[in-house]
Design goal:
The complex is a heterodimer of chains A (about 525) and B (about 300). Chain A has about 525 residues and is mainly α. Chain A has 22 helices and 6 strands. The radius of gyration of chain A is 26 Å and the shape is globular. Chain B has 11 helices and 4 strands, in the order ααααβββααααβααα. Helices cover about 75% and strands about 5% of the residues of chain B. In chain B, about 50% of the residues are buried. The chains are: A mainly alpha (about 525), B mainly alpha (about 300).
C-alpha cells in the first residue's frame, strides 16, 4: 500500500478521498462477512427446533463501525504514523516523540493526585455516587495506576533495559509478598490480605509462570534446535498423568515423582524423536501434532487406567519437603506447626515459589546448555542442517537431545500442574494449548528467554485480566459475559502482535559463539524453524 | 464381503469430504509454503453458512425442493466462505509474506482461534441440529446406500473434474502452477502473483464450503468447534498424499476415510483417529515426503 508521506504534496486532499473509498470497501466487506453471522442468530424455540432471529440493528452498527474505523485509520492514522516514522527514524523502535508527549510531568502529577484521591476516598465516594458509577471510578483508578507505572517505566527505561534480568527476578520473588502487603493494608488485616491474595497469586502468578516454563521448555526444541513441534502439550500431559497416577495409586511424594515425571516425558520425547528424525519442516510438524492427538485420544479412551474424560481427581498436594503439610487435617499442618492463622493462601504462595524455582531452573539450564557443545550444535542445526553434517556434528543425537530436554521440562511443568489443580483430565491437553505455547515462543522472539517471558505475561495475563471485566455488565446489561470474548480477543491479539512485530518482542540476539568481537545479530539475518 | 463393501462405501463418503478440504491445504502450501491452520475453521464457517441459509429458506418459503435448497446452500456458502478466506489472506497473511516462516503460521493459528470463537459468540456454543434433508436409502444386493452418500460422491467427483480442468487447462491454473514453481520468476514474466494467491485462497475456501455443506447434510449437526477435527484429518490427508500435490490430497483423503471406517468396523471405534494418525507416522517413516510428493532436493 503506497502511503503519501511528504506533507507538501496534496496529502491533505487525497487521503480523505482515498479514505472514503477505502471506508466504503471496508463497510461492504464487513457487510458480506457479517450479514449472516451477526445479522441472524440461530436459537432454539420451545420445541427444540432451530429458529432464526434477526439482529439487523447490531449488524448495521458493526458495519458502520468498521467503515468509520477504516476511514479514520486511512485518513488520519496512516499519514500520522508515516510522519512519525520519518521524525523518529533515528530513535528506532517506538515513536518516542509521541511517547514523550504522552508521558509529561504535569500529566504524571495529575495522575498521582487522582490515584491517591480515589484510593483514600474510595469508600466515601462509593457511598456518595451510588454503586453503579463506583464501578467506573474503580476503573478510572486502575487506569491512573497503569498510567503511573507506564510513566515510571518510560522514564527509567535505560536503567530497566540495562538490568532487566535482575529487576525481573527480584520483582517475581517479591510479588506475593507485595500482593499480601498491599491487600492487608487495603483490608486492614493480615488474614483479609491473605484471602484476597489468592486470586492474584494463583490466577495471575502461577498461571503465567506455568506458561513461561512451558514456553521456555518448547523454546529449546523450536527456538534453539529449530524443530517445529506442534504437539508439545503431549509431554505436559505425560508429566501430569505420571504424577497423578503414581501419587494416587502408590502414594509417592511429589519430590520423588517430579524427576520421575520429567524422566518419563524425556523418554517419550526420545521415542517420538526416533521415527521423525528423517522428516523435515512441516512433515515434522504434522507428526508431532499427530503424536499430541494420539496421547490425548489414548487418555480419553484407555478408561481402565486414566478414567477417561472424567479424569483423575483427589491428587495429593505437595508437601513442604516432607516437613510441613498443607492439608488442614494433618498433624503437621503448616498453621499448627508455625502457630499462625489458618489460610489456603499459604499453599498458593508456596506453589508460586515452587513454579518460580522450576522456571529459573529451566532458564539456568537453557543458558548453560547454550554454552555447551550440545547447545551450539542445536543452534548450528537450526541455521543450516547440511553445513552442520558437513562439520561432523551428529544430527541424530543433537535432535534427540533437544527433543528429550524440551520434553523433560514439559514433564516437570505437567506434574506441577497436576499437583496444583488436584485434578487432571484430557480436556486440559488439547491442541489449543500447544498452539498457545508455540505462539508465546514465536511472539516473544524465538530463542530469547526474556522476550518469551514478556509474551507469556502479555498473552496469558491479558486473557486472565479479561475475566475481571465485570463492570462492563453495567454498560451492556446483565446478559453480557466478557468471558465469552476472551479467546476471540486472544486470537486477534496473536494476529495483531505478529503483524506488528513479525520477529517477536525481542527480535535480535547475541550469538553464543563469536569471533573476536561480540555483536548482536538482527533477527532478519537468522532463519529458524527449519527441521 | 457385503460388510466390507458397505464399509468401503462409508469410507468413500468420508474420504470425499476430507479430500475436498485437503485440496485447500495442499494448494495453499504449494503456492506459498504455509500451513493454513485456519482452513479447518473455514470449513466450519462454510457449514454454518449453509445451516443459516437452510433455516432462512425454511422461514421464508413454505417448502423448497431439496435439490434447489442444497444448491442454494452450497452457492451461498461458497461465496461467503471465499470472502472470509480472501479477507483473512489479505489481512493476516499477505503483510507477512516476506517474513520468516513461522510468522504466518502463528497468524493462521490466531485466525483459527478467532474464527471459531467468533462463531461461538455470534451463534451460540450449542450443537445445531437440523431435520434430515434427504433420507432415502437404497438396498443394492444387501448393501444399503443412502442418497446422501450418492450425492456426496457425485458432487465431489464433479467438483474434482471441474477443478482439474481449472488447474490444468486454463491460464489461471497455469499462473498458479508457475507461482508454485518459482514466485519471483512468475512475477518477472508478468503474472500478478498477489492476485493468483488470492484466487488460490478463494478456490480452497469454495471447496471447503462445499465440504461443509455436505458435512452438514450428512451428519445433520454442526457446532462452532467442529472445524478442528476434520481440519486436522484433512491436513493429515494432505501430508499423507504428499503436501503440494493435488492428486495426493484426494488420494490421502480417501485413504484416511477408508482407514477410519475400516478401523471402526473391524477393531474399535474409539481408536479410529489414533489409527489414522499412527498410519500417517508409519507412512512418513518410509516415504518422508508422502505418497505422491516429490522429494525435496537439497541445495547447498
Amino acid at each position: 500500500m503506497a502511503v503519501t508521506v511528504s506533507p507538501e504534496r496534496d496529502v491533505v486532499a487525497t487521503p480523505v478521498q482515498r479514505a472514503l473509498k477505502e471506508a466504503f470497501y471496508a463497510g461492504a466487506i464487513a457487510l458480506g462477512l457479517f450479514v449472516l453471522f451477526i445479522g441472524l442468530k440461530t436459537g432454539q424455540n420451545i420445541s427444540n427446533e432451530l429458529v432464526l432471529t434477526a439482529r439487523w440493528g447490531l449488524l448495521a452498527a458493526v458495519v458502520i463501525a468498521t467503515a468509520v474505523g477504516r476511514f479514520l485509520y486511512v485518513a488520519y492514522g496512516q499519514p500520522f504514523l508515516a510522519n512519525q516514522k520519518i521524525a523518529d527514524v533515528a530513535t528506532g523502535l517506538l515513536p518516542s516523540s509521541v511517547a514523550s508527549r504522552f508521558f509529561q510531568l504535569p500529566a504524571f502529577i495529575a495522575a498521582v493526585i487522582a490515584a491517591v484521591l480515589l484510593f483514600v476516598f474510595n469508600n466515601s465516594l462509593a457511598g456518595w455516587v451510588g454503586a453503579e458509577p463506583a464501578g467506573y471510578l474503580q476503573f478510572l483508578r486502575a487506569l491512573a495506576v497503569i498510567y503511573l507505572l507506564a510513566c515510571v517505566i518510560y522514564y527509567f527505561r535505560a536503567f530497566i533495559h540495562a538490568n532487566f534480568t535482575k529487576l525481573g527476578v527480584t520483582a517475581l520473588v517479591l510479588y506475593p509478598i507485595l500482593v499480601v502487603a498491599v491487600l492487608s493494608l487495603n483490608a486492614w488485616s493480615i488474614a483479609g490480605g491473605l484471602q484476597g491474595s489468592l486470586k492474584w497469586v494463583d490466577n495471575f502468578g502461577i498461571q503465567i509462570l506455568i506458561y513461561v516454563m512451558l514456553a521456555w521448555g518448547l523454546n529449546i526444541v523450536v527456538g534453539l534446535a529449530g524443530l517445529l513441534d506442534l504437539g508439545y502439550v503431549a509431554f505436559y500431559a505425560l508429566g501430569a498423568y505420571s504424577y497423578a497416577l503414581l501419587a494416587t495409586h502408590f502414594g509417592l511424594s511429589f519430590w520423588i515423582l517430579l524427576p520421575a515425571a520429567g524422566a518419563m516425558a524425556a523418554l517419550w520425547g526420545v521415542l517420538l524423536g526416533f521415527p521423525v528424525l528423517r522428516l523435515r519442516g512441516d512433515y515434522l510438524a504434522i507428526v508431532t501434532l499427530a503424536f499430541g492427538e494420539i496421547i490425548r485420544l489414548v487418555l480419553i479412551n484407555w478408561r481402565e487406567v486414566t478414567n477417561g474424560s472424567a479424569g483423575i481427581s483427589g491428587i495429593p498436594k505437595v508437601s513442604f519437603f516432607g516437613l510441613m503439610s498443607f492439608n488442614v487435617s494433618d498433624s503437621n499442618y503448616i498453621a499448627k506447626v508455625l502457630s499462625i492463622t489458618q489460610s489456603g493462601a499459604y499453599y498458593k504462595i508456596f506453589l508460586y515459589y515452587l513454579i518460580l524455582g522450576l522456571c529459573l531452573l529451566t532458564a539456568f539450564v537453557t543458558i548453560r546448555l547454550r554454552r555447551l557443545p550440545v547447545g551450539r550444535a542445536w543452534e548450528a542445526l537450526r541455521e543450516d542442517e547440511i553445513a552442520c553434517r558437513s562439520l561432523g556434528i551428529n544430527t541424530t543425537t543433537t535432535k534427540l537431545t533437544a527433543f528429550a530436554t524440551g520434553a523433560m521440562f514439559g514433564g516437570f511443568a505437567g506434574s506441577f500442574f497436576a499437583a496444583r489443580q488436584g485434578f487432571v483430565s484430557p480436556e486440559s491437553f488439547v491442541f489449543l494449548e500447544s498452539a498457545i505455547i508455540l505462539a508465546i515462543v514465536v511472539l516473544g522472539g524465538m530463542g530469547s528467554l526474556v522476550g518469551i517471558a514478556v509474551a507469556a505475561m502479555v498473552m496469558i495475563g491479558g486473557t486472565e485480566a479479561l475475566r475481571e471485566l465485570d463492570f462492563l455488565k453495567q454498560i451492556f446489561g446483565p446478559d453480557f459475559t466478557p468471558e465469552l470474548y476472551r479467546m476471540l480477543l486472544f486470537g486477534m491479539a496473536m494476529v495483531i502482535v505478529m503483524l506488528w512485530k513479525p520477529r517477536g518482542f525481542v527480535g535480535s540476539r547475541e550469538p553464543t559463539a563469536f569471533l573476536k568481537e561480540r555483536r548482536s545479530v538482527s533477527g532478519s539475518f537468522t532463519k529458524e524453524g527449519h527441521g | 464381503m457385503q460388510y466390507f463393501v458397505q464399509q468401503l462405501i462409508n469410507g468413500l463418503t468420508l474420504g470425499s469430504i476430507y479430500g475436498l478440504i485437503a485440496i485447500g491445504y495442499t494448494m495453499v502450501y504449494g503456492i506459498i509454503g504455509m500451513i493454513n491452520f485456519a482452513h479447518g475453521d473455514i470449513f466450519m464457517v462454510g457449514a454454518f453458512t449453509a445451516l443459516i441459509v437452510f433455516l432462512a429458506l425454511g422461514a421464508l418459503f413454505y417448502s423448497v425442493p431439496v435439490v434447489l435448497a442444497l444448491l442454494l446452500m452450497m452457492i451461498v456458502a461458497m461465496l461467503l466462505t471465499s470472502l472470509y478466506n480472501w479477507t483473512i489472506e489479505k489481512v493476516a497473511y499477505r503483510p507477512l509474506r516476506g517474513s520468516f516462516r513461522l510468522a504466518p503460521l502463528i497468524t493462521a493459528i490466531g485466525m483459527s482461534i478467532a474464527l471459531s470463537n467468533f462463531v461461538q459468540v455470534t451463534q451460540g456454543p450449542r450443537n445445531k441440529p437440523i431435520p434430515p434433508m434427504v433420507s432415502q436409502v437404497y438396498n443394492i444386493g444387501g448393501i444399503s446406500v443412502s442418497l446422501k452418500q450418492i450425492i456426496i460422491v457425485i458432487v465431489t467427483a464433479l467438483l474434482l473434474v471441474l477443478f482439474w480442468y481449472l488447474v490444468n487447462r486454463t491460464s489461471l491454473g497455469r499462473a498458479q502452477r508457475a507461482c508454485e514453481q518459482d514466485r519471483k520468476m512468475a512475477a518477472l514474466l508478468g503474472i500478478d502473483v498477489d492476485r493468483t494467491i488470492s484466487i488460490t485462497f478463494i478456490m480452497g475456501a469454495a471447496l471447503a464450503a462445499v465440504a461443509g455443506t455436505l458435512f452438514l447434510m450428512y451428519y445433520g449437526v454442526i457446532a462452532f468447534s467442529d472445524g478442528f477435527t476434520p481440519g486436522v484429518k484433512a491436513f493429515t490427508a494432505a501430508v499423507l498424499g504428499g503436501i503440494g500435490s493435488l492428486p495426493g490430497a484426494v488420494l490421502g483423503g480417501l485413504m484416511i476415510g477408508f482407514i477410519e471406517s475400516m478401523w471402526s468396523a473391524y477393531f474399535s471405534i474409539d481408536y479410529k483417529d489414533v489409527a489414522a494418525f499412527s498410519i500417517l507416522a508409519i507412512v512418513l517413516i518410509f516415504l518422508p515426503s508422502g505418497i505422491l510428493g516429490r522429494p525435496e532436493v537439497e541445495k547447498v
